[in-house]
């Protein structure tokens, strides 16, 4: 008996597509083309049980993160198998007759994998309780993602410590150009906001302080940055002090909803509104509108869904934890919501902001993610020593899958939306052309 041959045959019959992988199993058997770019090893029967008990992206993710399933070689090749996850999750419900399911079940059972569902990997986030996007719950889930160690993030983000899409505008920014791409992204945001010396900038979700430093050092503005991550706050304050900019930049451990006081000339929100959620998006837009002076600009840099999402049904807050289980929600961005661009624009306009521009950066994010993956792979042993093998595999899987998601049109994109709070006369106070408001001062 060859477990690898039988398993590959069963999966191909189940999915009704050939799998271009070389498979190795717990008994040492192998099957599939020996020169395949994707080499997958089921190290034990538990790996197969994980997939069969959750025949979707969550089951595959659990098997990989736990180390029960190993990918030797090109992880992009495995994740790039056309519609693998979609077929695995929907195939039994759509196309398989009860008789066929019974026959396939006997095939899998013959491999000796019958048993209870394995316990999820230790890094999987347990079911959350409480109202979705309440301040307390948001603080907990943001801490889960960001408070895993600044040294770990530095491994793949590089010295810029910018955890958002870069702007790959230079012809020579292809190899080793991540730092340039992040510098150019921060500068693009500053120019879109029309920053000038003496202005006050609010940086919502300020991360490790990179935007705040760039704006203060290169554009002479005073900055308030807010984050829900204690580790980000401490890191940002230290680097700001090292740069001698503590008198110009204030970093707070604070929810953006608690920011009040005098108004700001500009607001930057880079990679933060994905944590806000559909239900809270109108409140987010209204609050930022209220913090801007008339004529003040808002730059919202956020991932957007290209796939149509139906309007959410209203439901009690107590039931908000019962959302569909996905890899991203259970391992990476708990409670994160990727919304269509139209929802963001609508919320801004209803709040009284005038949307002046939107720029899509989909290809830029694919390049950024590929650079992060390369950095993480080059520092793999150090990453494992810092956060453990399971969490390191989680981030590698997440970054690799995300790169593929942004490379394929029609799935994900990312937009910089520029909006302005109109003046009392109804004017935007902005130059008439994009060339004018992008020109450096």
Largest sheet, in brief, is: 7 strands, mixed
Intertermini distance: 73 Å
What do the pLDDT scores average to?
87
As residue ranges, the low-confidence spans are: 312-323
- Overall form: elongated
What share of residues are in beta strands? 15-25%
Give me the strand/helix succession: HEEEHHEHHHHHHEHEHEEHEHHEHHHEH
If you consult CATH, what is the topology of the largest domain?
A: Rossmann fold
Extended strand count: 11
Q: What's the total helix number?
A: 18
The multimeric state of the shown protein is single chain
CATH architecture grouping of the largest domain: 3-Layer(aba) Sandwich
Pfam family, one: CMAS
Protein name: Cyclopropane-fatty-acyl-phospholipid synthase family protein
Family: Belongs to the CFA/CMAS family.
Keywords: Lipid metabolism, Methyltransferase, S-adenosyl-L-methionine, Transferase
Features:
single chain; 441 residues; alpha/beta; Nonspecific Lipid-transfer Protein, Chain A; Rossmann fold; 2 domains; 7-stranded mixed sheet; 4-stranded mixed sheet; 18 helices; 11 strands; transferase; SAM-dependent_MTases_sf; S-adenosyl-L-methionine; Cyclopropane-fatty-acyl-phospholipid synthase family protein; CFA/CMAS
């Amino acid at each position: 008996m060859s477990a690898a041959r039988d398993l590959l045959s069963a999966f191909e019959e189940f999915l009704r597509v050939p799998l271009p992988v070389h498979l190795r199993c717990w008994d040492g058997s192998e099957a599939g083309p020996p020169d395949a770019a994707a080499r997958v090893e089921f190290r034990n029967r538990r790996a197969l049980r994980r997939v069969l008990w959750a025949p979707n992206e969550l089951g595959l993710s659990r098997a990989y993160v736990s180390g029960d399933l190993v990918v030797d070689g090109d992880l992009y090749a495995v994740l790039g198998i056309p519609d693998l996850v979609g077929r695995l999750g929907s195939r039994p419900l759509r196309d398989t007759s009860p008789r066929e399911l019974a026959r396939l079940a006997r095939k899998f059972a013959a491999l000796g994998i019958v048993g209870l569902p394995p316990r999820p990997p230790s890094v999987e986030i347990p079911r959350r309780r409480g109202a979705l996007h309440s301040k307390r719950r948001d603080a907990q889930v943001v801490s889960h993602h960001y408070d895993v160690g600044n040294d770990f993030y530095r491994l793949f983000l590089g010295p810029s410590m910018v955890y958002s899409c870069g702007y790959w505008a230079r012809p020579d920014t292809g190899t080793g150009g991540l730092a340039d791409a992040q510098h150019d992204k921060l500068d693009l945001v500053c120019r879109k906001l029309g920053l000038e010396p003496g202005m006050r900038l609010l940086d919502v979700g300020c991360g490790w302080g990179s935007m705040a430093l760039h704006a203060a050092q290169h554009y002479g503005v005073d900055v308030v940055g807010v984050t829900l991550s204690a580790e980000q706050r401490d890191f940002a304050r230290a680097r700001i002090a090292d740069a001698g900019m503590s008198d110009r930049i204030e970093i707070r451990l604070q929810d953006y909803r608690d920011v009040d006081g005098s108004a700001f000339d500009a607001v930057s929100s880079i990679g933060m509104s994905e944590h806000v959620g559909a239900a809270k998006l109108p409140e987010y837009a209204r609050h930022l509108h209220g913090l801007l002076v008339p004529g003040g600009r808002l730059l919202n840099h956020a991932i957007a869904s290209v796939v149509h999402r139906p309007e959410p049904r209203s439901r009690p807050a107590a039931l908000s934890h019962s959302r569909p289980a996905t890899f991203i929600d259970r391992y990476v961005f708990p409670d994160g919501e990727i919304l269509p661009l139209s929802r963001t624009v609508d919320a801004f306009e209803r709040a009284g902001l005038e949307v002046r521009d939107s720029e899509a950066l989909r290809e830029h994010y694919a390049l950024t993610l590929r650079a992060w993956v390369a950095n993480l792979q080059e520092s793999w042993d150090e990453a494992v020593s810092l956060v453990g093998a399971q969490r390191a595999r989680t981030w590698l899987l997440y970054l690799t899958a995300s790169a593929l998601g942004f490379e394929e049109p029609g799935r994900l994109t990312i937009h910089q939306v520029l909006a302005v709070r109109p003046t009392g006369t109804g004017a935007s106070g902005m130059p008439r052309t994009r060339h004018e408001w992008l020109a450096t001062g």
